[in-house]
Automatic annotation (TrEMBL):
MF GO annotations: metal ion binding; phosphatase activity
InterPro entries referenced in this protein's UniProt entry, alphabetically: Cof, HAD-like_sf, HAD-SF_hydro_IIB, HAD_sf
Cofactor section: Mg(2+)
UniProt entry tagged with the keyword Manganese: no
PANTHER family hit by this protein: PTHR47267, PYRIDOXAL PHOSPHATE PHOSPHATASE YIGL (PTHR47267:SF4)
UniProtKB keywords: Hydrolase, Magnesium, Metal-binding
Protein's recorded name: Cof family hydrolase
Pfam families in the record: Hydrolase_3
Presence of the UniProt keyword Protease in the record: no
Biological source species: Leptotrichia trevisanii
Family: Belongs to the HAD-like hydrolase superfamily. Cof family.
Top-level taxon in the UniProt lineage: Bacteria
Native organism taxonomy: Bacteria, Fusobacteriati, Fusobacteriota, Fusobacteriia, Fusobacteriales
């Protein structure tokens, strides 16, 4: 039997309104009671994940910022891998507004979500309503002075793919991924959910083969394919579907409790009234 579960949040564990359903909450509580380790792996910052663990009523290790940071169950950061200043400055030197018309620049630096001055409302209009965040607005000419964890852009998919090509032309020291059709992230090379999952499992005395994982975005690819068994959500984005083997297993959509249904099947076959 598998000993650990690693779950993405948006589009995976979270249902409509970006909340945990009662059914999912109860299934997770039951598998934890059976001694199965449960971890969250998200593109969000640690602070933006807290309300989910509160809903689940658990204290668990968390992979944040798509693998750039890992926190233990007590909230202590135990791993960090940010962008090199050389790569970050090269990317920030691009005229992204011309390359990807209508897109908006975002940066995670430390615990801050940074945007350029005057774009707050436009970014708010693009992000899930449950994400409570106080943006820090910084003039463009001051961005290169930051210690940057990751850079991400919000905009139209076709425009963002133009920017993806431009970034990969100027540096090979990054990993460019789409967490959704409208959000593209730039991470340090080697920083991903798969590498973070390996680090966390080994720290807990487990191996990749001991775990199952669930996800729906391109940022989940390494995690899904490195563990003992990966499951893609029925609502997975096209970029993830194209990367996965043809025989890869899909479960129900996040709005159908797809992950929890599979967890019940895997770990709670004889359980009733979950």
């Amino acid at each position: 039997m598998y000993k650990a579960v690693i779950s993405d949040l948006d589009g995976t564990l979270l249902s409509r309104g970006h909340h945990v359903t009662k059914f999912t909450k109860n299934v997770i509580k039951e598998i934890i009671k059976k001694g199965i380790n449960f971890y969250i792996a998200s593109g969000r910052s640690y602070d933006q994940i807290g309300y989910v663990t509160e809903q689940l009523e658990v204290k668990i290790p968390i992979i944040a910022a798509n693998g750039a940071r890992i926190f233990d169950a007590d909230g202590n950061m135990i791993y960090e891998k940010g962008l090199s200043s050389k790569a970050a400055n090269a990317i920030l030197g691009l005229d992204y507004e011309h390359i990807a018309e209508g897109s908006h620049l975002n940066i995670f630096s430390g615990n801050d979500w940074i945007i350029t001055k005057g774009t707050a409302q436009k970014v708010y209009d693009r992000i899930p309503r449950d994400v409570k965040v106080n943006f820090k607005e910084v003039p463009k000419d001051e961005l290169k002075n930051l210690d940057i964890l990751k850079i991400f852009y919000i905009g139209e998919h076709e425009q963002l793919t133009n920017l993806e090509k431009a970034i990969l032309k100027i540096t090979d020291d990054v990993n460019v991924i789409f967490v959704s059709d409208y959000c593209m992230e730039v991470m340090a090379k080697g920083a991903n959910k798969g590498a973070a999952t390996k680090f966390l499992l080994e720290r807990e005395g487990l191996e990749l083969k001991d775990a199952v994982a669930f996800g729906d975005g391109e940022n989940d690819f390494e995690m899904l394919t490195m563990v003992g068994k990966g499951y893609a959500m029925g609502n997975s984005i096209d970029r993830l579907r194209k990367l996965l083997p043809k025989d890869f297993e899909f479960v129900g959509e996040n709005t159908e409790d797809g992950e929890a249904v599979k967890l019940q099947e895997l770990f709670l076959e004889r359980a009733k009234n979950i």
